[in-house]
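Work Package 3 (structural annotation) set out to generate three-dimensional models for the target panel prioritized at the project kickoff. During this period the team completed the workflow that converts sequence records into discrete structure tokens, so that structures can be stored uniformly alongside our sequence database. As a representative example, we reproduce one entry of 930 residues exactly as it appears in the project archive.
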Amino acid sequence: MTLADRLTRSPRAYSPEEGAEALRHAPGMSGPVADLVTGAAGSSPFLKSLVESEGDWLAGAAQAPEAALEAIHHDLRETGADRLGPEMRRAKRRVALITGLADLGGVWSLEEITGHLTDFADLACDLALRAALSAEVRRGKLPGMGEDDIATGAGMVVFAMGKMGARELNYSSDIDLICLFDETRFERDDFHEARSSLVRATRRMSAMLNDRTADGYVFRTDLRLRPDPSVTPVCMAMAAAETYYESLGRTWERAAWIKARPCAGDLAAGERFLATLRPFVWRKHLDFAAIEDAHNMRLAIRAHKGLGGAFCLEGHNVKLGRGGIREIEFFTQTRQLIAGGRDPDLRVRGTVEGLARLAEKGWVPQEAADTLTENYRFHRELEHRVQMLRDAQTHLLPNSAAEFDRLAAFMGRETDELRDEIADRVATVDDLIEGFFRQEAPGGDAVEEVPEAAFDEEVIARWHGYPALRSERAQQIFERLRPEILARLARAANPDEALLAFDGFLRGLPAGVQVFALFEANPQLIDLLVDIVGTAPSLAQYLSRNAGVFDAVIAGDFFAPWPGRAALETALVERLEAEPDYERALDLARRWHKEWHFRVGVHHLRGLVDAACAGTQYADLAGAVIGALWPRVMAQFATRHGVPPGRGAAVIGMGSLGAGRLHARSDLDLIVIYDAGDAEGSDGARPLSVRPYYARLTQALITALTAPMAEGRLYEVDMRLRPSGNQGPVATSWPSFRSYQADEAWTWEHLALTRARVIAGDAGLADDFEAFRTALIADKAAREPVLRAVADMRARVAGAKPPEGAWDVKLGRGRLLELELVAQAGNLLVGHGARDPVSGLRGAVASGWLDAAGGAALEAAFGLCSTLQMVARLFGAGPLDPDRIGKAGAAFVLRETGEESLEMLAHRLDRTCDEAACVIDAALGAGEGG
């Protein structure tokens, strides 16, 4: 389509005479296109000069502007090196003319305008680099490289930074480039010669683009965004750049690399380098410290450019001034830096796209994103008009009334109307951005002053000696937070206890800047922390070592309903699939698990779920971890030893995992069963026979779950419930398992099998296992041997493991181990496949072993003991200790159990468990007698 077909607006000629003079150089122009050219040239001396020099070409280009650009690109690619410089300058004039007219006429959108400008910049960089490298290769100055290597930059890559990287290049922009080379493409002895050659090529490329001749210039080129530009060469080795960013890189450099894009040379090497820099740019935890860094950068720019005073429209900087383009970019990039490490969807280069993603993911209110997007587009268009006037890389509004009239005419606007709109838009953006960056007390409200003398001054005095407060920056942020923290601690049920618990949290925190910045940006986390430290100090100590779990609280769905095991497993699988490295994937699983484990504990602590529900959620989480990791472990193992022979294996959860009820500190009882069929071994690079294959595969799973890594371990694993216990192989074949259970297993092993549940593995084998388990339970339901085994095991446990006091709900007469043993017997006697303890106790009644009153007494004891165990495991590893849990902890215990005091709870626990013990005594005595 022609320009005329798509015109939606047109500038007015500030000087009609100048416009008419330019139009005489564009033969054949008439109608609306002639008006467009007259208005543009009559307001912009630069566009007038372009029309005068390229008027003959313009007549044809106006008939098909996109095709005209394609022809420019094609002709440049066919141009010889000797003519490349002048031809690129002529091409730049034509690109500037047609994009300027298409912009002024509303023919192309902002994205199309900046995209066409960026495409030309990419092409110019690529052609200039090829020409420069070709000269080096022809002279034999680039060791090991020939003409065939020029297409891939001979190991060198040019990164487009800033607006060019984001495909947002403005009309008269310079281009920011970083030039690196892949040192692995050269022999060690050739490194220095190769670097010298690539430095020369970089300088030659830059000169071809940058130097102004009688034909003009292509692009002003800036190479100073590279690491430490005052002392480093203009083309650096990738390894050196990586080392710099890992050790010395600053927040502004992280923000710069958000937009970075390989645009010329070895593009594949460029993408690999971006992948290498990913951990530098995108931190694995939410990075609220970036807010203060960005705020300080804004203030520094204002101070350096003298932009910090009162707003004045004349001479206002639409890029760097308040309420300008850079403010919107900072806003967007800061939010991307905060959350992009956790959410890859936020890792986009464009400002408008970044705002859209942030709003979609809930990091920016949709209304704010829409407001900033609209104003960003307006500011960019205004910037283009200012630059088009005289092809100046300026961002300043006119200083005189006459020049403001020229700008208004150029935009087809009335001067007063334009001035008012600019002022309104600047104020709108400034108010919104300042509200985001303003450094206020947490919560934004005045904080009630709490005299520090109200607390133990010795405790507070030692804080500045802790590792978290070593750096000056951490101290500054903490000083702003301290009044808020003390005020909230003062409102705790027992302020002194809360202070000591917070002191424990602070003492264990290895570093403070990120955590304190997180609290400052999200003051609701301080309330949560005070809740935790005041109620469960051991959980607070865990937070000291794993403060990254706070990220999950502000991710948007922390307090949403529990998703269930299937959704959890799907989410973890997706995360693991995005990480190709096996070791990093295991660490990723650990980070993910810690966040969800913390979520269950917080929901329980705050009364959002009860003990029974928390137990189910812990079990769901363990199942999801195993279900997601098992395929990854098998795939990793298969790279060396081949795919699993036969049908593969199934991971069976035993004990509390099988029953679907874990607590905060549970280990996992597992067994692995495999069915190799007729296979004798694997067929990988290092094949193994069946038995060692599955034994080593099982050990790989155990290692994946238990190995201490940078992010800790997932679970402890106990495999003693496998056939023959510790004496048997860690993985059992399916035929051997069936034979053993049918003919050799002790009755206690059949009791254990009542809680067995397939967690992961081959679906067919899982179905076969469940069918066998159900049939075996029905077949082994004879009462006498079952009750004899229960009585024997009860006596053994009582003799080997005495209770640790009155609050030990696991060991002792009528407590959890005995209750679970009776429940397993009930499930076996009734001959059905239920696994959970309550179903087992009811099964004992249904089978006629217990009467209804006895069953109710045992259910009551199980409910109370399991609740107390869930609560106690949030406090620590041992039984509940009323003398150490404090007032807030005691309130949590009483809320969960419905009692009014710990004394009343202790009496109820003793009475309930004694009644349960008497029921068990009578039931086993009757069983043994009958």
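Residues 611-641 form the longest helix (31 residues).
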